Each structure stands twice: as structure tokens, then as C-alpha cells.
Amino acid sequence: MTNPFNHIDPSAQPDRPSKKKPIFPVNDALRQYLVKYGREVKLPVSYADLQRFTYTVPLKDKYGKETAWEKVSYDMHEWEFLRENLVRIYAILKTEGDLSFINHLDVARIDFCFFGNSQPFRIRIVNKFNDNYDHYYIKKADASRIYGLELEHLLSPNRMTYFTDKETLIEEHIPGIPGDIFIHDYLQDPNTNQIRLAKEFVKFNERCFVHLLGDMRAYNFVVNITPDIEDYQYRIRAIDFDQQSYEGRKNLYLPQFFKENKPLVDIVAKHLDAKSIAQYQAEERTMMTFRLVSARYRMKEILDIMAYDDISKPEKIEQLKQELSEHFHNPTDFKKAKTMGQLVKRQMKVMLQKNLMFVPKTKAQSRFDD
To answer: CA nearest 298: which of 211, 207, 212, 367?
Structure first.
């Protein structure tokens, strides 16, 4: 058995994802889904409101280096409106709209990122009594990003908190050490358990590939470290869902092929053999299967909506269809797909079908298999 993380050919590195991916509108079926499951709420501030800033100042990190973010400023009238209502949005995210706690909260700063497709605003909320702060993000509502958030919520070990209101998307901040910083500052630390980290990277790689979440370069995920009996456990979490099933290159959906992630690939090759990797992949697929079955009605709803939505370009769909067929040596399951959503559904079926055999058959599961 060959170790799939060993001796990766540099020529197999994926092309860069599209520099400018279009924003796909939320269609009526997806909107109804969001309403049904409590994701669509009335918000007091929209993305367009935040665009009325007067000027920006480059934002530097604690070491004095410039970041991809800029601090934005507003005139006094706009600022007072935003301060009050951005705190209200924080209450919607954290306490389901209970406003009894907002008097001791304030907006410390609003940042804007010109980099990437979503051009998000980052809101820093501060507790006025103890200066503790938290963040959340306001972005343009993009259907492919929403599908990515929803699939992550249903299939991964992580719960996602987000809300929409027409063309506005609100996302909770996902805490953790950014992957690129973790690789630079923590990977070679003697306290880092590289074997456990390698295991988690294999599982993360598998999760992304199952539901075709792309562009998981190091700065698009975070690493959580949890003290455990005599050691540490690690969890890698995606934080950017902009590239959910959009691109045509298969390798863009496998984090192991990005050069930014090579140090993590190297520790997998160093510490894990092919049988261990296969075991961890099977473990992750098994857990995803149990999550799928437990949320089978909701999964079927979102996949059925996604199957008829326009979230990519025809040439990218054809390319991915061909590359997945070659990868699995199975053209039958992919050749009939006409949309990216249909490819995601067939991909999940191909990768999880063996695991479904060990889950008690139910009528709802049969509906998903159709």
C-alpha cells in the first residue's frame, strides 16, 4: 500500500483558485431553506450600510507588520447608527437577540479586507467593563459560501453560527491559530505532538474532499489546541468557504496539494504509514456518515437545492467531472452530473457508500441514496 502523502510531485500542485470568483445570488429555494432552519433573520445593518465609510488606514499586527485589513472610519452620524446596531447584531449571534446584555458592549473597531472575493468587514466588539473583545464578520451573501457553511455544519465535528438577511451574510468568528502562523511558530515546537497533528491533517484533508470544499491553504484554516491527558489534541477548522465546489481542478479540493501546507504534508509522510492513513480516512468517513444519517432530512433538502443551483461555470463542471471520474476509476457515477451540486451529491455517495452499509437502513436514508 502506497503512502498517498509521500513524494507528492510538485507538478501535481493545483493551479491557484480563480482570483475573482463571482458572487452567486441566493435563489428562492435556498432562501426558503434558510428561513425554515432559522438562518434568515431581520438584521439592523446591511453590508451596503458598512460600505459608506469615509477613509481607511492600513492595519498592522502586534509586530508592526501590515496585514490584509484596513481600519475604516465613518462620519459621526453613520458611526452612531452603526455602533448601536452592530452591537444588536452581536446579540443576535450570541444570545438569540436578547438585548439585556448590550449596555456594557461597544464597537471598538471596524476593519475591511480588500483581499479575496467576499471583501468582508470585521467587527470588533468590546466589553466596556473588562476590555475583553470578540469579533464577527459581515459579508455579501454568496450562495456557494452558504452551501459551504451549511455542509460544514452538518458533516463536520464543528457547528457553524451564521445568519443571512437578503444580500447580507453574518458569520461568527472561528477562534484558533491561523494555519500559516501555526506552521511558522508552533509546528517545530518540542511541545507539539506531530503524530496527533498529522492524524488530524489527514482527517481534515478527507473532510474537505468529501464535500468538495476548495482552497484550504494554510491561511484559510485555523488550528485549535486542546490539553488532554498527558498531551494535546488538535482540531483543524476551515474558516473560508468561498471556494465551495466552484473550481474544476480536483486537487484544489485536497489540502495536501497546496505548497503552503507542505510542512504538514511532510509530518504526515514522516510519522504515518499507508495503513495508518487509510485507517484515519476511514474513521473520518465513518463519523461523517453518522452525521449525515442523523441529519438526513436536512441533508437531502440542502443537496436537492444545491443540485439545481448555478454556482459554477460549465467548463469547470466538465473538468471536475472528468477528473473525479479518473480519480475513482468510475465514470458512471459522475458523467450524468450537470451541476456542481449534483457532483457534490455523487462525490459524497461514492466516498461514503461503503460506510452507509454499516448504518441501519432507514426510509429516509433510502431517499438520500436515490
So the answer is: 367
Cell numbers describing residue 32: 426558503
Distances (CA, A) of 367 to 40, 192, 297, 356: 27, 44, 9, 13
**Residues pairing with 127 in the sheet:** 105
Q: How far apart are CA 293 and CA 289, in angstroms?
A: 6
Query: Quick check: 13 pLDDT over 70?
Result: no
Name the grid cell of 254. Answer: 485536497
Judged on CB neighbours under 10 Å (0-12, 13-18, 19+), 227 is exposed
The span from the first CA to the last CA of the chain, in angstroms, equals 33
Largest separation between any pair of C-alpha atoms in the chain: 66
Residue, of 362 and 55, whose pLDDT is higher: 55
User: In the structure grid, which three cell numbers stand for residue 264, read together?
Assistant: 504538514
Q: Are 106 and 131 in contact (CB under 8 A)?
A: no
- Predicted pLDDT of residue 358: 63
Q: What is the pLDDT of residues 309-341, one digit of tens each?
A: 999 999 999 999 999 999 999 878 898 899 999
Model's pTM, two decimal places?
Answer: 0.92
Distance of CA 253 to the CA centre of its chain: 12
Could you identify the residue written with the cell 460506510? 355
- According to DSSP, the β-strands at 121-127 and 105-113 are antiparallel
DSSP code of residue 300: H
pLDDT average, residue stretch 128-144: 95
What percent of the chain has a predicted confidence (pLDDT) above 70? 92
3-state secondary structure of 211: coil
Asked whether the beta carbons of 13 and 257 are under 8 A apart, the reply is: yes
What does the DSSP 8-state code read for residue 23? Answer: P
What digits encode the pLDDT tens for the residues 235-252? 999 999 999 999 999 999
User: Per-residue pLDDT for 105 more than 90?
Assistant: yes
User: In this structure, what DSSP letter does residue 293 have?
Assistant: H
DSSP 213: B
